[in-house]
Every structure is written in structure tokens, then in C-alpha cells.
Specification:
The chain has 396 residues and is α+β, with helices and mostly antiparallel strands. The chain contains twelve helices and ten strands. A hairpin with a 2-residue loop joins strand 7 and strand 8. Helix 4 runs parallel beside helix 6. The two termini are 31 Å apart. 17% of the residues are buried.
């Protein structure tokens, strides 16, 4: 992969290409050393006294000459956060020397700097961060980086133009996927609602001119799909065409970025126990929801075995391996009832509802549509075809 030819350059003899898929992996391997070094300078510093609470340990460490600091890293992009000017410059020079002497890496002079977040903003992973005084303490305000906002606007215009030239369901689905993806990434910015209202304002005229010209109407969706209602609970007007609703860019609110425990990892026995414990809680919550769901015409055997199967597969789709909430669960008869199949536990399979539709789909247009949405890999497709063959349907 390192020697893969680059268009216009040829075979590189040093480093990885910008945006190469191998780059984040190599960054994590190399810079894990930096993570551990920084953490053991303060956060994981070993003390003679055992503290029952971590905040008690930090209060004690602040009375020493140690420099306060916590690292946040994503691939090769990282920040070290501290609470005073003196420690900030200590960290800057210490990390610069550590990377050069220990890891043989140079930092970017343009991007690497000490920033006082009370006076200036700092950019990280597409977000713009700054702290403001609120009562007696400071709180972080986050916005979307200007460059990213412009990129969202340009991408939205491309999708709108594509719909205008070819108003197919496929193109409208792609627009909705783009909106949902943008929302899911930036919903942790505290000013996300205002930011997306601005983005919507910047493309509003284009949507009015292009979509209005081909029969779209701006309405408050009253007959929206379950998926639409799941993500968009506010009654915003949105562009609709033949009962298909485009997702409204401005309909988003801030989501609290809850912290996570770094002890929850699949790479240690203790971490796996914690992961499985959390998964069991999530499974039990969804089992309770499945218990209350109404299934008219189904046998008691089917209802009981569906729950047992969901619990056995740990709530995951038996084709994609993705965890399913109660709303996403469909229970498939491996051997259909019309071919002699029954409601026995061994004849039931837990699958995503879109996967279920694809298993039984016969029209080529429908099959292609679901394949584009689901983006199955070869292993998942082989499994799907196994299910189709059990239903006496042709492989895809």
C-alpha cells in the first residue's frame, strides 16, 4: 500500500499520500507512544498515595511542579489542553522535542501553536472552539469551521442540481443521506442550530428556483415516513415531491457529547467484560420494547422465539452484524411458511428491516435500489443469497 502509484507522481519513496487510507492506521501506531508519554506526565502519573477519586488526585497534583495537561488525538491531529499560559508553553516545547528526538517526526509550524481559548478560537476536526465566561466559570462554545460550512453548502448545491436535472428517488435519497451524515457529525457543536440555519439560508434561493420549477412544494410533512419522524420531530417546512420529503437542513439541535470510559475496549479481558455488560443493558431495554409490540396474527411460539433469537444474537442483524434497536428489528423465517417453514426457534433469523425486504425482493429495480442503500460487502452478500436460496429465489 505504501508503494501504490500516485497519479501524476508515480511510486512514492517516503511517507503516505495525503488522504490515504493507511495514514490513520500508521498514525495510531506511531503516536500511541506520544499518548502514553503525555498521559503519564499528569493524568496517569503514579502517586505514592492511592486516591479513591480521580478529582482528589488531580487536586493534589496541582500543588506540585507537574505541568497540567490532557491530550485529545484523532489520527495525526491532536490538542493538549491545560489551564494556564506557563504550562501551555512547557507542553509545546516538550512535545516538539519528544516527537523529533523519540519518534523522528516534525510538527507543522503553521498548524502548531499555543492558543488562549479565552481570546482566540482553535480549529479541530472541522469544529471551531472557544471558551466564554458564564457566571463564575468558563464554558466551551463550539461552531462549525468556516471552510466546512462552505463545503456543506457546495455539496448541498451539487445534490440540488442533480435532483433538478434528474428528479429520481435515488437522487433524493442521496440528498437525505448527505443531510443526515452532516447532522450526525456536527450535532455536538453547541451552536449547531444557528450554523445550519445559516447554511439553509445560503442555499434557500437555489432550492426555491430549482425545485419549485420541477414540481416540488414546501410543506409541513404530515404523512412522513417513520424514518423521517425518528430524526425530525420539529414541524419545519421541507421540500416534498409525490409524498417524498427531503430532509430539512435547518432541523437540528445540539446533542450532548457524553464521555466514555477508555477502559471499555475489546483488546483486554476487563474491557470486553465492560463492553458486554453495557451491551446486555441495551439488549434488555430493546427486549422490553419488543415485548410490548403488537403482532396480530402471530403465534405465541413465534413471539417467544423471536425474543429468544434476538437475545441469542446479542441484538445484531444476522447478515450485517450491526446492532438493531427494537424499531429496526425484523424476524425472518429462514424457510418461508408457504414452503412448509414453521415458527420454531431454529427457523427464525433476526435481520434489519431493509435487509428483510431485500431477501424477498424480486423486481430488479427494487433490488438495485436496496443494494445502493445498504452497500453490502461480499461476505454479507453471500449470506443474503443463502437466505434467498432458502426462499427459492435467485441469488443477487
Amino acid at each position: 500500500m505504501l508503494k501504490a502509484p500516485i497519479k501524476g507522481i508515480g511510486i512514492p519513496d517516503k511517507g503516505t499520500p495525503q488522504g490515504g487510507i493507511l495514514s490513520p492506521l500508521l498514525s495510531n501506531i506511531i503516536l500511541n507512544d506520544l499518548d502514553q508519554w503525555v498521559a503519564h506526565q499528569y493524568e496517569l502519573f503514579e502517586t505514592n498515595h492511592h486516591y479513591s477519586r480521580v478529582d482528589g488526585k488531580y487536586r493534589a497534583l496541582r500543588k506540585t511542579n507537574l505541568k497540567t495537561g490532557f491530550i485529545v488525538r484523532y489520527a495525526d491531529d491532536f490538542k493538549i489542553l491545560t489551564d494556564n499560559h506557563k504550562d501551555a508553553y512547557k507542553w509545546y516545547h516538550a512535545v516538539k522535542l519528544y516527537l523529533k528526538d523519540r519518534l523522528k517526526l516534525d510538527i507543522s509550524k503553521e498548524k502548531s501553536k499555543v492558543i488562549n481559548l479565552r481570546k482566540n478560537s482553535s480549529e479541530f476536526l472541522g469544529f471551531k472552539l472557544k471558551v466564554h465566561k458564564k457566571a463564575s466559570k468558563y464554558v466551551t462554545y463550539t461552531k462549525i469551521k468556516e471552510k466546512k460550512k462552505t463545503a456543506i453548502v457546495e455539496k448541498a448545491r451539487e445534490h440540488i442540481d442533480r435532483i433538478y436535472r434528474n428528479p429520481t428517488v435515488e437522487n433524493m435519497i442521496h440528498f437525505n443521506q448527505f443531510v443526515l451524515g452532516s447532522h450526525n457529525y456536527f450535532k455536538y457543536a453547541t451552536r449547531v442550530s444557528a450554523e445550519f440555519r445559516e447554511i439553509d439560508f445560503r442555499i434557500h434561493r437555489m432550492m426555491h428556483n430549482r425545485l419549485g420549477r420541477i414540481g416540488f412544494k414546501k410543506v409541513i410533512p404530515t404523512n412522513a415516513s417513520k424514518t423521517y419522524k425518528k430524526f425530525f420531530k420539529n414541524k419545519y417546512k421541507t421540500w416534498s415531491f409525490k409524498e417524498f420529503h427531503l430532509y430539512p437542513l435547518q432541523d437540528i439541535k445540539f446533542s450532548i457529547p457524553y464521555g466514555f470510559s477508555q477502559n471499555k475496549t475489546l483488546f483486554t479481558p476487563e474491557g470486553r467484560k465492560l463492553v458486554h455488560k453495557e451491551l446486555e443493558k441495551e439488549i434488555n431495554i430493546n427486549i422490553q420494547k419488543l415485548l410490548t409490540s403488537k403482532l396480530p396474527g402471530r403465534s405465541v411460539e413465534y413471539i417467544d422465539n423471536r425474543l429468544s433469537r434476538y437475545s441469542m444474537v446479542q441484538g445484531k442483524c444476522e447478515i450485517t452484524g450491526v446492532f438493531l434497536t427494537a424499531e429496526e428489528v425484523h424476524c425472518h423465517h429462514y424457510k418461508p411458511t408457504h414452503l412448509g417453514g414453521n415458527d420454531d426457534y431454529n427457523n427464525l433469523r433476526i435481520v434489519n428491516k431493509l435487509i428483510h425486504k431485500l431477501i424477498h425482493a424480486t423486481k430488479e429495480e427494487t433490488i438495485l435500489n436496496y443494494l445502493k442503500i445498504l452497500q453490502l460487502n461480499s461476505r454479507q452478500l453471500n449470506k443474503l443469497n443463502e437466505f434467498r436460496r432458502a426462499c427459492n429465489l435467485e441469488s443477487i
